[in-house]
Write a structure and sequence with these properties.
InterPro entries: Quinoprotein_ADH-like_sf. The protein is mainly β. 12% of the residues lie in helices and 31% in strands. It has one domain. Strand 4 and strand 5 form a beta hairpin.
């Protein structure tokens, strides 16, 4: 789920044109941004995404660009085959596929 108070950004009509914002610093210079958040408080909209989201949104006009990753676990047979050479004690997640999505959402 992508959720956030993009209303604060849209109120100042500023784009967020790159990863981590206009200067790549990960913050907005806007004033009066919300200090409190919850599942419903200060959320102007939300939308479901496939998989897990990993990036800062990019906002241009009414377009909000986000990325998501969708992982498919390997079968037990493939997992055993791939872990034969693993001599470490760390548990590993073995995937058969990872799909990366770049998604454009119309915020209007």
């Amino acid at each position: 789920v992508v959720a956030g108070s993009l209303a604060a950004l849209s109120q100042i009509h500023a784009d967020w044109p790159q990863w981590r914002g206009p200067g790549g610093q990960g913050h907005a210079d806007a004033s009066k941004l919300p200090a409190d958040w919850s599942e419903v408080k200060n959320v102007s909209w939300r939308t479901e995404l496939p998989g897990r989201g990993w990036s800062s949104p990019v906002i241009l006009g009414n377009q909000v660009w986000v990325t998501a990753a969708h992982e498919t676990l390997a079968s037990e047979e493939k997992k055993k085959e791939r872990l034969k050479a693993n001599t470490g004690g760390q548990p590993l997640t073995v995937l058969s596929e990872v799909r990366i999505h770049a998604i454009c959402i119309d915020k209007s």
